[in-house]
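User: Hi! I'm working on a homework problem where we have to compare a predicted structure to a textbook description. Could you give me the structure for the chain below?
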Amino acid sequence: MKLLNEILNYNSSFIEEKAYEPYKTSNLPDKRMVVVSCMDTRLVELLPRSMNLRNGDFKLIKNAGAVISHPFGSVMRSILVAVYELNADEVFVIGHHQCGMSSIEPEKMIGHFKERGISEDTINTLKHSGLDLEKWLSGFDSVEESVQNSVDMVRNHPLLPNDTPVHGLVIAPDTGKLDLVVDGYEK
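Assistant: Happy to help. Predicted C-alpha cells:
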C-alpha cells in the first residue's frame, strides 16, 4: 500500500471514530505565543512537552534550522500574522543541538539535485538570475549564533511592535533541555 492510501484509510477511521474531539481548540493561541522551530522529527512532540505546551496553546512555524533568513519572507510574515491577527504577544525562536543545517554542504546538495534529474541548465539559470545558490543552501556553524541572528531580525523588524518580547532558545533533541540564548524581556 502506498503512503497516501495508508494515510487516507487511517483518516477515514479517525473521522468515523471521532478521534479528533480531544484536539478541538480555537485558532487563537491560549498562551498567546508564536514559536519558530526546526522541522527536525525529534522535536515534533518533544518541544511542546518540554515547554508544557498543549494543542491550542501556541502558533508553530517550522522550517529547516529555525532560521529566519529574510525580513520579508514567509516566516516573518507568519510571525506578523500571529502577532497582529492571532493574539500572539511573544515570539520564541528555538533552534536545536545536532541540527542538520549545521552540516549542510551546498555543493553536495547541488550534486543531489543533479542526481535526481535537475539539469545543469536549470542550475545555471538560477545562478545567472542572481541567486547565490551556495549561499542560499548553506547552513550555520553555531546554532546559538543562528538563533541570535534570527532573534535580531525579528526584534528589529520595522513592522513588529516594540513591546513584543522575542526570545531565543536552543533545545537538546535527546533530553528536551532548553538553553537560553536571548531573554526577550531584556532589551
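For your comparison, note the following. The longest strand covers residues 90-96. The helical segments are 3-16, 43-50, 74-85, 106-115, 120-128, 133-137, 143-155. Good luck with the assignment!
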